[in-house]
Amino acid sequence: METLKRIQILRADSNQTVDAEIIRLTTDVAREKIDKVWWKLPSVSAEEMNDEGDFHWDWERLARIYSGKILHECVAVLSQENYLEGAMVYQFNAKSKLEPNKESVYVGWLASAPRNRNWLVSQTFYKGVGTMLLYWALRESYDAGLGGRISLQSLPTPSTVQFYENKGLVRIDLTQPTNDLVDYELPESAALAWLQKQGDLP
């Protein structure tokens, strides 16, 4: 597995940061460490799993389609337990809707491992994995000269919508049905503020 960056993530039981890695998500890794593993949760019912918007995502297929495409990236978070705690597929050169003459990084798929979702399991393993992946996309956008802008379509579940809005993403089309995918974008001003908060900008 190719390590792109060594990072730290927060253990839920101790509230302490531990080492982890951002890795490139290949088809083999996606199949063996996501599709065959993530939803093996004896304490979670089939109905609860079906309520999760990403339950039917085929990560092996996504990696096969996008990992070799120019301007696309497939990444995941690998913990010390050799478990993938989250994954994301994104692309460069998407069009900004807030600033139509500019570009953004488009996050097509982003998910934290089911075992890290506090509304789904009684004891989570890690906190903030989705936030860390979103910040990775922001950094990729900033480093590519796109101002940190991120665009995406959110699942309409309240927890997902709240997650993105808490990170400063702005809903683009207020006329969209509430049961449909929701267009969001992180504007450059919010991206720069987040970079400063993390200490990556003065």
Strand-residue proportion:
25-35%
Mean pLDDT: 93
Biggest sheet architecture: 9 strands, mixed
Radius of gyration: 16 Å
Quickly give the structural class: alpha+beta
Query: Low-confidence segments, ≥5 residues, pLDDT <50?
Result: none
Shape: globular
CATH topology: Aminopeptidase
Classified in CATH, the superfamily is Gcn5-related N-acetyltransferase (GNAT)
* Secondary structure tally, helices: 6
Regarding CATH, which class?
Alpha Beta
Strand-and-helix sequence, N→C? EEHHHEEEEHEHEEH
State the strand order across the main sheet. 6-1-2-3-4-5-7-9-8
Report the helical percentage. Answer: 25-40%
Tally of strands: 9
- Overall tally of structural domains: 1
Instruction: Tell me the distance between the termini.
Output: 33 Å
User: What is the second-level CATH architecture?
Assistant: 3-Layer(aba) Sandwich
Characterization of this structure:
There is one protein chain. The protein is of the alpha+beta class. The protein has helices spanning 27-35, 46-50, 59-66, 129-143, 158-166, 188-197, and strands at residues 3-11, 17-24, 72-79, 84-95, 103-112, 126-127, 150-154, 170-171, 182-186. It has a single domain (3-197), classed as 3-Layer(aba) Sandwich (Aminopeptidase). A hairpin with a 5-residue loop joins strand 1 (3-11) and strand 2 (17-24). Helix 1 runs antiparallel to helix 3 (59-66). The chain starts with a strand and ends in a 5-residue tail after the last helix. The mean pLDDT is 93.
